Amino acid sequence: SPRNLRVLLDMDGVLADFEGQFLKNFREKYPQDPFVPLEDRSGFYVTKQYYALGQDIGTKAFGIYEEKGFFLSLQPIEGAIEAAREMADMEGVDVYICTSPIKKYTHCVVEKYQWLDKHLGKEWMERMILTRDKTVINGDLLIDDKPNITGGMSPPQWQHVLFTSWHNRDVTLQGGQVRLDGWLPHSGWRDILERKRQE
Ligand code: TMP
Description:
Helix content is 35%, strand content 14%. By secondary structure, it is α/β, with parallel strands linked by helices. A 6-stranded parallel sheet has the order 3-2-1-4-5-6, covered by helices on one side. The structure holds thymidine-5'-phosphate.
């Protein structure tokens, strides 16, 4: 039989609800400040949109996810944990977590491991790939909510599955991208894998 299908899963915005927790913490910490409701989010970087509200607001926004405990506290996206487990159990499929830590790595890096351990378990440590350049990672599919993923390898080996989130829901797919609207059983993630396997 042919080789296994390699699927790379992004964490923030795909498995873990970065945006929801960010907004909750920002509003709790700065109740008097303007904020961006999820339905008004556009552009991948939440900080960029907050900087547009004022330099001080942008700085405060940065501080929210640099705080100790932020990355560990993220709630799983609905259906994500179940889907990840099912995917990893599929015959002929190898699943990896492919995530970019923030530059202020102190809490983020260790908490990403802790999050994976907490929600998926110790055996998932084997699957963890931390990189700031996802284009150099080998895979058949990368499931990620960031619309433009660029880096040292062009084109990357993987096909990009754009995972729908508030900030990318109006983005037009480009160059071989396909879209995945969530992890619920009828979102069609299995079909995307099957189609790729048959290529
Ligand atoms: P990802 O491409 O693996 O999802 O990487 C997202 C990383 O980018 C994550 O560590 C959080 C960080 N990030 C920012 O630095 N600023 C932002 O505005 C957002 C949304 C994410």
